[in-house]
Amino acid sequence: MGGMMVMDTAMEFLLPSWWEVQVTLAAAAFAVAACWFFTLGGDGCGCSGGV
């Protein structure tokens, strides 16, 4: 019985909760969008605006 309680506590501690997964996915999406925006310069064509 005691071993099962230890396993339950360990799994609860090691596995992320659903809101932690959602926050991580939102942060990853934001990072990708920010990288895409700054790499392309925000105009969407990928050009540097020069010649």
Task: Provide keyphrases for this structure.
about 0% strand; about 50 residues; single chain; 2 helices
Fraction of residues in helix: over 70%
Strand content: under 5%
Question: Judging from the principal axes of the Cα atoms, what is the shape?
Answer: rod-shaped
The first-to-last residue Cα distance is 74 Å
Oligomer: single chain
Tally of distinct domains: 1
Q: Output the structural class.
A: mainly alpha
Using only C-alpha atoms, the radius of gyration works out to 21 Å
Helix and strand pattern: HH
Mean pLDDT equals 82
The largest sheet is:
none
Number of strands: 0
How many distinct helices? 2
- The low-pLDDT segments are none
Question: How does this structure look, described?
Answer:
This protein is an all-alpha fold and 51 residues long. Helices cover 71% and strands 0% of the residues. The chain has two helices and no strands. The longest helix has 23 residues. It is rod-shaped, with a radius of gyration of 21 Å.
